[in-house]
Amino acid sequence: MSPFSQSLISLRSRYGIRQGELAEMVGYEQSYISALEVGLKGPPTTELVDRICDELSLSDEERQKLHDARDASQRKFTIDVDTREDVYWMFKDLMEYLSELSEAQVRVIREVVRIRDQQKPQIIRSMRRTKRHKVEEATM
């Protein structure tokens, strides 16, 4: 189930709203809301997400989480034409093995992807601590 589907179901449950009621509130058919929740439809437009947020009077934080869930629910990706060749091969490998990845493997991949330049000093400090610790053990 997509992050958006999960979020929409959770919101309806928290607010005690049925699919038909939400559909009426935002001006869509109940069948479309149902299709979003079960994943038959891709993520909705940002306009629909904004309508849901407005109708439910979501806080800025809740609004951002729903938009993030929408963005995370994209099923198709386009690689920029000027992307390096090795990135194409990485995506090929990911597509081929995606259904076989364990939760632990997905977590590791996500952590690696999230490493940014501003985190490099932290990683280097962590590595230095590890090296220093190993040296101390060797002198004992």
From TrEMBL:
It holds the Pfam family HTH_31. InterPro entries: Cro/C1-type_HTH, Lambda_DNA-bd_dom_sf. Residues 8-63 form the HTH cro/C1-type domain. This is Helix-turn-helix protein. It comes from Methylomonas methanica. The lineage of its organism: Bacteria, Pseudomonadati, Pseudomonadota, Gammaproteobacteria, Methylococcales.
